[in-house]
Design a protein that fits this description.
There is one protein chain. This protein has 14 helices and eleven strands. It is α/β, with parallel strands linked by helices. The chain folds into two domains: 2-200 and 283-308, TIM Barrel (Alpha-Beta Barrel), CATH 3.20.20.70; 204-279, no CATH class. The strands form two sheets. The protein has an eight-stranded parallel sheet with strand order 1-9-8-6-5-4-3-2. Helix 6 runs parallel beside helix 7.
Amino acid sequence: MITSLFNIQYPIVQAGMVWASGWRLASAVSNAGGLGLIGSGSMYPDVLREHIQKCKAATDKPFGVNLPLIYPDIDKHVQTIIEEGVKIVFTSAGNPKVWTGMLKQKGITVVHVVSSSKFALKAQEAGCDAVVAEGFEAGGHNGREETTSFILIPAVRNAVTIPVIAAGGIATGTQMLAAMILGADGVQVGSRFVCSEEASSHISFKEKVVQAKEGDTMLSLKKDMPVRLLKNHFYEQVQEAEARGASAEELKQLLGRGRAKKGMFEGLLEDGELEIGQVSALIHDIKPAGEIVREMWEEYNLKMELLKKV
């Protein structure tokens, strides 16, 4: 269902992550048979246009753009997406009713990221073609409900009739199979692709992710906009502020501007914001994105065959 919706070979979507998902990663995943997404949240409109054009030159396969609805110049991003002929848009962090109708009028397939079955229903009512059910394990900005993928995936599957793409805590073919058994039609993978050769994230950040163990990430900044982070000096500052009851405004001042860029793109590992998922504990190497796609699909099929023998 997902493969026919996007015209791709494997039901594997690479998440559009800020400071990691440029045209190199998106085209590599698409060329390998998955769906690559350009993460527009960290791009100026002219930069997004450049990435779309380079992605079109690097692959003849479908790819899309992840569009955070809280982006300040979102109308410019939408205009760029339409002018460049992008056919797939994943929206997140906002109300899908605002842009879905107009995007679909332009012939664009629209998918919205949700953290609850309530928001999945709203996305369906807004006309979205599919939803991404993103569990609490996921990196980056996360739902306040703190619902884990094992609960969220079947809850969303029971709530909507449109395709469901599972996200949050998925980096292997085994986890992909578990998500499909729970009711997903495909999976969206973020953290694993951060540790790909083509990801634009800083090599020091990639190496930090590879070194991560269970418990090394925590959901933080809950009074502002919840985000899962690797523990470092900045995280400890946030924890201290939250423990003494800092207001949302104080937390915003502590966060400042460009904190994620400093950590994930520039490699300032102590003072930067290091967004990554819990599944980082299972990531042990940095390799080409195409190899990640192939390994996931091969492991998925292997475990499927083993289940048939049970």
